[in-house]
Write a structure and sequence with these properties.
The structure is a homodimer of 299-residue chains.
Chain A (H helix, E strand, L loop, with lengths): L6 E6 L3 E7 L5 E8 L3 H12 L7 E5 L3 E2 L9 E2 L12 H9 L3 E5 H12 L7 E7 L3 E7 L2 E2 L32 H5 L1 H8 L12 H20 L3 E5 L8 H13 L11 H4 E3 L6 H10 L11
Parallel strand pairs in A: 1-4, 4-7, 8-11, 11-12
Antiparallel strand pairs in A: 1-2, 2-3, 5-6, 8-9, 9-10
Helix pairs in contact in A: 1-2, 3-9, 6-7
Chain lengths: 299, 299
């Protein structure tokens, strides 16, 4: 059945916000991007963008942690986080009030995972793990297309890693001295090198350290979540040479364990995103269709 | 609705097999227990036990890894494993042929998790993580009561842990030099101490090491799976003094992260099994009801 309704999508990242209007099949008609500032400045800008587009509902993927369990006004509230102006922002309710349509909220990484599962590298796979490696490290997981929630949403970027013996920096994570984000995010790379990752040659020894951490995260997620495919995206993963390094280190760590029909070919098991940065927006469009309804989303 | 059908349940562990007949509400009428030997000896013994009981279908929880994705004869096949006689055993098909009823198979830990979610310490919680610490370490996970599969089933006991600085043994895991099972299972405790865990006083320093590992596993599972409750069982967890140690080490490692309404009270977030060892059998009875049907189970 063709769904002619027009939906809204908002991706709220730590540095930028992207708003888009499109259809549930992933067609994007119009988009707007602006730097993240504060809810008081940014929510009216979002409302302005959607005004007159006749959207039926809105899907939102935001940095976390975000409360997806709360009822009523609490649904979609950003919890205590380093971005002080956003901490405790009742994002879901404020967007609903400003834009006047049902609003469904998820973590930006779960939204990206839904995007990959519906339109990208996870299409046709039962359970999809998406790992983003950029300003932060986050994971999203979908089970037959539905995002994993539970307590909140996965925050696997903060799971534990063993520190590399040649490590020269302390964790950049505000909270954890020992998590994947603390040692393998973009800011960790930059702290270690004094320059951004994209300026480093593929044969630099730093990638050995980087993939030491990422392969630990991938291995743990694999053994704990049992995904049918692992899609990796985010700024750091644009370095395509990281993929073979991660695959080989994961294989090495598994020691033959967990090798099954789908995982035996690591080239098709651990794969890059195919959506060129639009995975979260596309996931938000799909969320807006209302298939993952929450009683307080209005969907 | 009251379901008067009688169901069969089989728990296949590395050392013992338990067969039971009961109802979907968890009532067990009759049970039989015998040491695990080989499929050729044990499958006929199981068939004998169920003969004449008029069971409608059979739920099986087995040590893994077990193929839950295969179709036809491959469904429920035990994969390559240390128990040579069981490797490649077409368990699902052989039980179906011997007993003549539909058979649904899962890992023993997923079965135990279903048991806890339906009847035990996970009752009423959305997503339940069950961790068993015994001869091996395994995890099971249910989402709104349904077990997590995907590639196979979770095998989180083999996820990575950082080795304690006072560690005196090498990993007892056949495959991994660095996994939770290798350092925190019953056999690891025994190797470290020369005696079984139940003979060790609660104030022995070994428990500090044991919970160092278990708290890493719990933390990683928490951040990766986002469960609403974590139920721990198995022989080692009968040492009740381990619970406060694990809770405090998990809290310490989280550094305030992931603390939410449900997880803020660790005493009710990380809890002992309440089913006295029957969790897997009860889960098998529930599985037999057919709510998690697989096309090749006949349910």
């Amino acid at each position: 059945m063709n769904d002619d309704r027009v939906f809204g999508a908002i991706e709220i990242g730590g540095t930028k916000i992207i708003c888009a209007v499109g259809k549930e099949d992933g067609t994007i008609f119009e988009r707007m991007r602006f730097p993240t500032s504060s809810p008081d400045a940014d929510i009216p800008a979002m409302a302005d963008f959607f005004s007159g587009h006749g959207i039926s509902s809105l899907g939102v993927g935001t940095f976390g942690p975000v409360d997806l369990r709360g009822q009523g006004e609490d649904y979609g509230t950003i919890l205590e986080c380093p971005r002080e102006k956003w901490s405790h922002c009742r994002l879901g309710q404020r967007l609903k009030d400003s834009i006047g349509v049902p609003v469904i909220v998820d973590s930006d990484v779960n939204a990206a995972c839904i995007g990959e599962a519906c339109f990208g590298a996870g299409k046709g796979k039962e359970n999809v793990l998406y790992i983003t490696v950029g300003t932060g490290i986050g994971i999203g997981f979908t089970i037959s297309g539905r995002p994993l929630h539970g307590l909140m949403h996965p925050e696997g970027g903060h799971s534990k890693v063993l520190v590399h013996e040649k490590e020269t920096i302390a964790s950049v994570c505000r909270l954890h001295p020992d998590c994947a984000e603390g040692f393998a995010s973009g800011p960790a790379l930059e702290k270690r090198l004094g320059t951004r990752g994209e300026n480093i040659r593929p044969d630099d020894p730093v990638w050995e350290i980087e993939t030491y951490y990422l392969s630990q995260l991938v291995r743990n997620c694999m053994q704990i979540l049992s995904p049918n495919v692992i899609v990796m995206g985010g700024g750091v993963m644009e370095q395509a040479h990281l993929f073979p390094m991660i695959r080989s280190k994961v294989l090495e760590q598994l020691h033959g364990h967990y090798i099954h029909a789908e995982s035996s070919d690591m080239d098709s098991y651990i794969v890059p995103s195919r959506l060129g940065g639009d995975q979260a927006l596309l996931g938000c469009l799909r969320m807006a269709r209302g298939v993952f309804g929450h009683p307080s989303s209005g969907l």
